Amino acid sequence: MTRYDTSDDSVVVIIGSGAGGGTLANELCHKGFKVVLLEAGERQSPQTFRNDEWFAFKQLAWLDKRTASGSWRVARDFPNLPAWTCKTVGGTTTHWAGASLRLQEHEFKAKSIYSNVTGANLLDWPITLADLAPYYARAEDKMGVTRTNDIPGLPGNNNFKVMYNGATRVGYKTVHTGRMAINSRPRDRRASCWQLGFCFQGCKSGAKWSTLYTEIPKAEATGKLDLRPGAQALQIQHDAHGKATGVLYADRGGKHTVQKARIVCVACNSIESARLLLNSASSTFPHGLANSSGQVGRNYMRHTTGSVFGIFKHPVHMYRGTVMAGIITDEADYNPKRGFAGGFEFETISLGLPFAAAFLNPGAWGHDYASILEQYPNMAGMWIVGEDMPQATNAVTLHPTEKDQFGLPIPNVHYDDHPNDIAMRDYAYKQGAAVYEAVGATRIIKVPPYPSTHNLGTCRMSEKAADGVCNKWGQTHDVKNLFISDGSQFTTSAGENPTLTIVTLAIRQADHIAAESARQNL
Amino acid sequence: MKIKRREFLRKSALMVAGVSAAAAGASVAGLAAEWTAGLKTLDPHQAETLLRMARRIYPHDRLSDAYYIKVVEDLDAEATAKPATARMLKAGVTNLDRISGGKFANDPMPIQIVELKKIERTPFFDKVRSTALVSLYNNRDVWKEFGYQGASYPFGGYLHHGFNDLKWLPDPPESASPKPA
User: Cα separation of A374 and B142, whole Å?
Assistant: First the structure.
């Protein structure tokens, strides 16, 4: 196992080993860079994963205390769990469902195209779909996305059969088993999908792409990676010239260490990335590192979500097989006639009985709620994932009084639903209900958003330094050798599940870091 | 209703370890005397109150009291480990009896629901509800009752165990849903 000295200032330090950080580490190692990968969580494997919702939640989820505020219902239902992300090697790629969709061309120009959405802090991305297309192709190949690279789609399960029949009866045209980073055939030394039904709990067959057993071991095989699990980054340090010099972290025992670095890349998922920059404030950067714009932590997005579950006369057994087993993409376009900007997808979703009880209507009790759960086998489910509006006041901030186990302020996540988000969700609930009613649903359950798994925008990329935190390469406007390498770069949320784009941006960022290093610019 | 209730108690008695079949048909209080004996922190009255409360929160006629007794046992375990929880539960039970004007556990079911409505925003209620949520719905025996099969890895996944066995709707075309490899 490769180990670099903490005083070795020729290493690239990447914080976070998920879709962004894990991919970036592998790409850089293959280009010959020395990489120290700090991961707050521990290392699991398909062998240690369990088909058990509560066990896996405790094993994988980020459970350090956070607070939530704002008008979103999550703040009421889960005041200390605004997000469902992971603290483990592989990050939230252990938990994600695998849906891998490219952003659409118009979504890179939300400000120009949606024009004046009152209260929205919209901005155009400093890049276009054309800029990303070749990197999307590399990401799809790397991840083995079905319906790309001649990889067949996955077989649909019962939950998909219900969705498909309902969707086509109401006139939707594009309904299939999706573009999924789940092997439909053995590929890249990973098995094909066993239809385990536990995508969210860590894939025990290894069919679902996760940096845990793809990018990270590949990076280790180069001999260039020094992976440090159980290492919680506390602060990014800098010199008098405003260049990042290293990262202060606490190991499992609580011992503080500074790892020197020539380049620092932040990929901690949007809440922790923003918190780390804010916690790295200094006399030179009194408002937080890379925060001259004041945008660090702001424009927090989490997608407009919600779920529709239908109860039928006959059994469905939705929990059997891939969780996101199918998709309806007809609503993904920009069509303001519907009463909102942006688009959304429907994707099947299933919950086991333990989580169905916890999430179908958080806090509910009594005969009516119990009667819903009694019909569990006859239930089908779909999730709404759509573009939400960035708002300056939707923000990750440092809690004024509460501190974590390291004495640092915990994050507060504030989110108010924008009227556009509410209009989209209401429309999607109505359409989703129509899909299920078309195939005989006897009851429709409109389920509020779960704690956020798509956390975006808190270090957004922008053409101008005043509008955002990083440039089109994820390089921060203020600190040349500091990069943002996760979904917090997203200028706007777009309507697609973000992982494919996070991986795409990481591949592209690695190329940029290599090119700039070769030119002696870094 | 009365007969049904006795039937639950009889089943409960048969299912709960350490409870003799002689308790079959016993009064609530009589049964309580048996099943609460193993609790470390909660007294029989508190335990009985919490049992009734758990039944009202997630009422499933198909489930015997045995499953709800597990909720009280889990609450007792936490109360034993955390004095703050013990205090919260004791105060909560006292408050419920105060609202009842007698003993909450002895009130008719519709009255109990009205009484619980009055405290549903309290930390005490949420503690009982959230404990019941996990105790009940994360119980493998309950899964069988509710048609949830749980872990599929031990038998190789649902791929060959019914992941696409739904027959009451036509199969989608292969372009939308390819055949398994």
Answer: 11
Subunit contact A197:B56, Cβ cutoff 8 A: no
Q: Contacts of residue A439 in chain B, CB cutoff 8 Å?
A: 169
Q: Is A190 helix (H, G, I), strand (E, B) or coil?
A: strand
Nearest to A155 among B129, B175, B178 (CB): B178
Q: Rounded to two decimals, what is the model's pTM?
A: 0.95
Residues of chain B in contact with residue A373, where contact means CB-CB under 8 angstroms, are 58, 60, 137, 146
- Would you write out chain B's pLDDT as a tens digit for each of its 181 residues? 344 444 444 444 444 433 333 333 344 555 556 899 999 999 999 999 999 999 999 999 999 999 999 999 999 999 999 999 999 999 999 999 999 999 999 999 999 999 999 999 999 999 999 999 999 999 999 999 999 999 999 999 999 999 999 999 999 999 999 999 8
B81-120 residues touching A, CB cutoff 8 A: 113, 116, 120
A179: distance to nearest CA of chain B, Å? 11
ipTM of the complex: 0.95
In angstroms, the CA A122 to CA A102 distance is 20
Contacts with A135 (C-beta within 8 Å, 6 or more apart), sequence order: A504, A505, A507, A508
Cα angle A387-A390-A395, degrees, rounded to a multiple of 5: 125
- Interface contact B155, partner A, CB < 8 A: no
Nearest to A211 by CA among A93, A113, A293: A93
User: Considering only alpha carbons, which residue of chain A is nearest residue B141?
Assistant: A353
Rounded CA-CA distance A513/A491 in Å is 21
C-beta pairs of A186-190 under 8 Å, 24+ apart in sequence: A187/A144, A187/A151, A188/A144, A188/A214, A190/A144, A190/A214
